[in-house]
Design goal:
- This protein has 191 residues and is α/β, with parallel strands linked by helices.
- 53% of the residues lie in helices and 10% in strands.
- The protein contains 7 helices and 4 strands, in the order ααβαβααβαβα.
- α1 runs antiparallel to α2 and α3 packs parallel to α5.
Length: 191
């Protein structure tokens, strides 16, 4: 699989960091390990985020971090919980960096996605609406899975959510052609 340029850059920097850390350990220079990790986080990653945020400022766009469900992809980290998403937003600390909440992803990792949704709070500016049964990210229409919709909507009201709702559905791909229009009408009524 072909990696994006950004992924290639990140892996190159990470591999260099790992090599530096191994060299420091082999030479019993333990203090160099913490310095290398700190430099990577503070210099490399921070400058990367600053470049992105500078471009966002110039273009007048907002960057969102979405909660993912638990994924195991080698050499990658996904923000898969509200605590990490909150920490990332607080760390970046920029008026154009906020959260997107995916109801289906939250349903896969939380038995009750309400407290985590509250944790993201007023930094939530976009919501991906989809449902599942808590095991596979099916991207179903609301009320076709186990997302506690009444609780989700009440929590959004409680945190004074003003952002948009985006259906993230793949249900129609599996439907026969003659059922697609009624399915879209159903989705419209739910919205």
């Amino acid at each position: 699989e072909e990696l994006e340029e950004l992924d290639k850059w990140a892996l190159t920097k990470l591999n260099a960091l790992v090599a530096d850390i191994r060299k420091a350990y082999n030479n019993y220079e333990f203090h160099m390990v913490s310095h290398a990790i700190n430099d990577f986080c503070v210099v490399e990653l921070s400058s990367f985020y600053l470049d992105i945020l500078h471009t966002a400022e110039e273009q007048g766009i907002t960057i969102l971090s979405e909660n993912f469900d638990i994924m195991c992809v080698p050499n990658m980290y996904w923000v898969d919980n509200a605590k990490d998403e909150r920490e990332l937003i607080d760390y970046v600390n920029h008026p154009l960096f906020h959260a997107c909440w995916d109801t289906g992803h939250a349903n896969r990792i939380y038995s009750d996605g309400i407290a985590p949704l509250r944790r993201v709070g007023n930094d939530l500016v976009c919501t991906h609406i989809d449902d599942n049964v808590g095991t596979v990210d099916l991207h179903q229409m609301p009320f076709m899975g186990t997302v506690p919709w009444a609780n989700v909507m009440q929590t959004l009201k409680d945190i004074d959510y003003k952002g948009g709702f985006i259906y993230e559905l793949s249900t129609a791909k599996r439907l026969p052609e003659e059922l697609k229009k009624p399915a879209f009408e159903y989705a419209y009524k739910i919205a």
